[in-house]
Design a protein that fits this description.
By secondary structure, the protein is mainly alpha-helical. The chain has one domain. 80% of the residues lie in helices and 0% in strands. It is built from 7 helices and no strands. Helix 2 packs antiparallel against helix 7 and helix 4 runs antiparallel to helix 5. About 4% of the residues have low confidence.
């Protein structure tokens, strides 16, 4: 009777062991996904963002007033967001990694606050007739967003953010006539240069 009971209980023991091993593997995968880097930033997407920003800078420079200038850049911001989302989703799908994994969520959550602050401060500066400070503000706070969000991504991303911050600080003190050139250099040039680096070193 004892031997028969032992044999009948053996599969249960093995099943419990297999279930425990599966749970351990699941925990390890979830831990790695949370602790890793957000690698879905698309270099090709950043190049596309930079190219559209150069066009936007050209068009904005020809607007007769601030509101026309700001409207061009608002459209560019929406277009850039669409390019970044679609290209990142495509890269994540190609590498079979979830776009909003642990690092992806952290990237987005740390990226958003400086951008929201920039939008709010833009309205404040516009009402106070301090529109000359807005290009520097945008470059500085966008750089802050990229630098903080980029701490959960590949190394090139936060470095790009720091470069935006330096350019934004320069724009705050530069003559007003430099604004469109600095916007083109930042949102256009930096995106293209770092997009090429990301595409080459981090798989597209």
């Amino acid at each position: 009777m004892r031997a028969r009971g032992e044999r009948s209980g053996a599969p249960n023991v093995e099943g419990a062991a297999l279930e425990g091993a599966a749970n351990d593997l699941r925990f390890i995968r979830e831990t790695l996904a949370t602790a890793g880097s957000f690698t879905a930033v698309s270099g090709r997407g950043q190049i596309g963002v930079g190219a559209t920003a150069v066009v936007a800078a050209y068009l904005a420079a020809r607007m007769p007033d601030f509101h026309g200038w700001a409207a061009v850049w608002a459209v560019e911001a929406l277009l850039a967001m669409a390019i970044a989302i679609v290209s990142s989703a495509s890269k994540a799908r190609a590498s079979q990694t979830p776009l909003l994994s642990g690092p992806g969520r952290k990237f987005v959550l740390t990226l958003l606050p400086p951008l929201v602050a920039g939008a709010a401060l833009t309205l404040v500066l516009e009402r106070a007739s301090l529109t000359a400070a807005i290009p520097g503000l945008w470059l500085l706070l966008y750089g802050t967003a990229v630098a903080t969000g980029g701490s959960f991504s590949v190394r090139a991303v936060p470095v790009m953010g720091y470069c935006f911050m330096v350019l934004g600080a320069l724009a705050l003190w530069a003559p007003a006539g430099w604004a469109n050139y600095l916007m083109a250099a930042g949102f256009g040039g930096l995106h293209i240069v770092f997009g090429a680096v990301i595409a080459r070193r981090y798989g597209g």
